[in-house]
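Structure ticket #2291
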Amino acid sequence: MAVVIVREDLIGRARPDTPAMLNYATVIGADSMYNTPPCFCIYMMGLVLEWLEKEVGGLAAMQRRNEAKAALLYDYLDTSRFFQKPGGKTVPQHDERHLYLPPRPSWTRSSVPGPPKTAL
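Resolution: structure written out below.
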């Protein structure tokens, strides 16, 4: 699913060979219902956005959370002799370090996630 934000002055300026379903003027003219809407995706996005706002605290809080997870990962990789590139760090210290790591509540500096413990 994609959410598209288009400047109004760009609507209706698609190339003639643009398929109708990719022409935002067509989509807007049909109240975003030109094609069958992905109902489940829309529902799930609503749940995720609600969770992001109410439980995480918004985008700034999610950014801080992701930066902490990335720091944990890259601190480990930077101290590992196995993962280093010749002559330096694994990844530069700027934009390339911004990434999404799936949430895992058990990730802390003192614990590394492992396989679930099950009784035999």
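Closing remark: The radius of gyration is 22 Å.
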